[in-house]
Amino acid sequence: MLEVKDTTITAWGKTLVSGLSFIARDGQLTCITGSEQSGKTTLIRTLMGFLPVKEGFVSIDGELLTVRSAHAFRSLMVYLPQEMQRLTRHYRAPQPPVCEAEEYGVWNALLPPSATVPQPEPLTPEEIFSLAERTLCEAADKPIVIADEPAAHLTPELTQRMTALLLQQVARGKTVLVASRKHQIVALAQKVIDLDTLKI
Which neighbouring-strand residues pair with 29? Predict the structure, then answer.
């Protein structure tokens, strides 16, 4: 279970959300939605401990999450970034040591520091889905799934399959938190956090 309580998040000198409270429960699909630049990815990064909250708190199973404690909490999470091609190096080449100070270096404990490697080639929609499926399969023991726009680059058919994949994680009792504007995903969520209106 992941809880956000009376949280204010700021970035680039402006407040993105203020007084935000919600609980993402085990066995539930929680969707963060909103227009482009509404703060979805920033909120995701905050919930993973890469950014501090200005006010309020974030906790996982009752334990407070901070930037300093986040490394331990991320070991409970599997993350599907919006740019899924960043995960391909895990399957294509040996990995250099992980650099904790580099954000991309700690996603799923698989990724090398982004500054030390060239940008990977874009993936096809089929490759994106296959990589997401494989990543979730290999992280079957992790109780929290966080996905940032997992269907952004998928065809309608693959969006349906991605949605089914996320619902499988829900059925296994995991906390599934997804940032998405896709109506197929928003419509199936048990809880929706709309950053445009903050109607929860």
Answer: 176
Rounded distance between C-alpha atoms, residue 58 and residue 2, angstroms: 7
Two structure tokens written together for 102: 């580099």
Give which of 57, 68, 55, 45 is closest to 8, Cα–Cα: 55
Distance, in Å, from the CA atom of 112 to the CA atom of 109, rounded to the nearest integer, reads: 9
Closest residue by Cα to residue 44 from 30, 25, 64: 30
Could you tell me which of 25, 22, 21 has the C-alpha nearest to residue 170? 25
Only one residue has tokens 């949605």, namely 163
What is the full per-residue pLDDT of the chain (200 aa) written as tens digits? Answer: 999 999 998 877 888 888 999 999 999 999 999 998 888 998 998 999 888 888 999 999 999 998 889 889 999 999 999 888 877 655 554 444 443 334 444 444 444 444 554 556 788 999 999 999 999 999 999 999 999 999 999 999 999 999 999 999 999 999 999 999 999 999 999 999 999 987 44
Sheet arrangement for strand 191-194 = 77-80, 144-148, 175-179, 28-33, 191-194
Provide Rg for the chain, Cα atoms. Answer: 16
- Give the Cα separation of 169 and 56 in Å (integer): 29
